[in-house]
Design brief:
Blueprint lengths: L2 H14 L3 E3 L2 E11 L5 E9 L9 E4 L6 H5 L8 H7 L4 E4 L26 H19 L4 E6 L1 H12 L4 E7 L29 H4 L2 E5 L5 H6 L11 H13 L11 E5 L1 H10 L13 E9 L5 H10 L5 E11 L11 H12 L3
Parallel strand pairs: 4-5, 4-6, 6-7, 7-10, 10-11
Antiparallel strand pairs: 1-2, 2-3, 3-5, 8-9
Helix pairs in contact: 4-5
Protein name: Alpha/beta hydrolase
InterPro entries: AB_hydrolase_1, AB_hydrolase_fold, Carboxylesterase_BioH
Pfam families: Abhydrolase_1
């Protein structure tokens, strides 16, 4: 990405999310790009309060398989920005887009037909992107270790990175993520549309393609089904839902060229998730030596109790292991209303990352 294009994208994103005031101080945001491997440019956002504590560990937030960083973690509405909440707790917070997502470099194959290439951006590629961003943060903040928080697929990406670079991570939060311990998953496992019916146990590359198009309406099916009341606004603020969809679409400058408008997401994360859902393990938690917080929600459709239990068993060298199940909460608890689990989630994370 050229310098001029980077500047234009950064300005566009900053217009989406101006500086805001929250209890405790003014929240400031700075958008920038970090060089990854082979000319890849990685978008990151720094979020900090003017009350940031100098000795508080920096935190890097990792998005999941579909919606990129800003849309996942920094929406311009009340209770829509996990990044601002963590910044208000004293941390300098960073949000990144992995390659192929949001404002980071997209593989050229994402401009080709979806059926011309295998699923793009699998976990080893994302781990390299995380490595580049972590090194940038360590130098910028003058620290040896940082904290990682990964949501869903972001959790296994973060764990994978921490297993390869244990000396870089002080705290690891894995939130509603697959890991292993079961070969059954009703949504994305055996018998689902992700399995090749002609070759059981293999990912259905032909049906899924190299990347996917995601309309705004596709963001809410699983969320709505996991809310156990007819009036979804009782659980999820409509302003948060609107901002989530708007930011997701705004993350792709080609979204408006399709009807309905849709943003692109690589399919490599889905392939990795299918294999974890059918009993494979992609990384080894025994290599992690940081403090680890495993968070699950009772109404999650993605991770399983076996993922949390097996992960905890494998964390034999972690300095501390905490495992929390938030009752009645959905997969999207950090975007739900405070009384529907969001306050509990933020309290668990801030207390944990604030521990020594």
């Amino acid at each position: 990405m050229s310098g001029a294009m980077q500047a234009a994208v950064a300005l566009f994103v900053m217009l989406l999310m101006p500086a805001t005031t929250v209890s405790g101080g003014n929240i400031e945001r700075e958008d920038m790009f970090v060089d990854g491997e082979h000319g890849i440019s990685l978008f990151i956002r720094e979020v900090r309060a003017d009350t940031a504590e100098g000795d508080a560990v920096p935190i890097l937030l990792l998005h999941g398989a579909r919606v990129p960083g800003v849309a996942s973690f920094d929406l311009p509405v009340p209770n829509g920005s996990l990044a601002a909440d963590l910044a208000n707790a004293g941390h300098v917070v960073y949000i990144m887009d992995a390659r192929g997502y949001g404002f980071s470099t997209r593989p050229p194959e994402m401009s080709e037909a979806r059926d011309e290439n295998p699923p793009l951006v699998r976990s080893p590629a994302v781990v390299k992107d995380i490595a580049a961003v972590v090194e940038f943060i360590r130098k910028r903040q003058s620290v040896e270790r940082i904290a990682l928080l990964g949501w869903a697929t972001g959790g296994h990406w973060g764990g994978y990175y921490a297993s390869l670079h244990p000396d870089r991570i002080s705290h690891l939060v894995i939130y509603n993520s697959l890991y292993g311990g079961s070969d059954e998953h009703s949504l994305i496992g055996h018998g689902s549309g992700l399995e090749d019916s002609d070759r059981p146990g293999r990912f259905n590359t032909a049906a899924v393609g190299a990347y996917r198009f995601n309309a705004a309406s596709s963001l809410f099916g699983s969320w709505d089904r996991s809310i156990p009341v007819e009036d979804k606004s009782a659980w999820r603020d409509p302003a948060v839902a609107d901002a989530y969809a708007e930011a997701a679409l705004a993350s792709d400058d080609t979204a408006g060229t399709r009807e309905p408008p849709s943003f692109r997401a690589p399919s490599g994360a889905l392939e990795d998730s299918f294999y974890m859902a059918t009993g494979r393990q992609l990384w080894d938690a025994s290599l992690v030596d940081s403090r680890v917080l495993i968070i699950g929600t009772e109404r999650d459709f993605w991770s399983r109790s076996a993922d949390r239990e097996t992960l905890a068993q494998h964390l034999v060298h972690a300095k501390e292991i905490r495992s929390v199940l938030i009752p009645e909460a959905t997969h999207y608890v950090h975007l739900d209303r405070p009384e529907r689990g969001r306050d509990r989630f933020i309290g668990e994370v801030t207390e944990f990352i604030g521990s020594e």
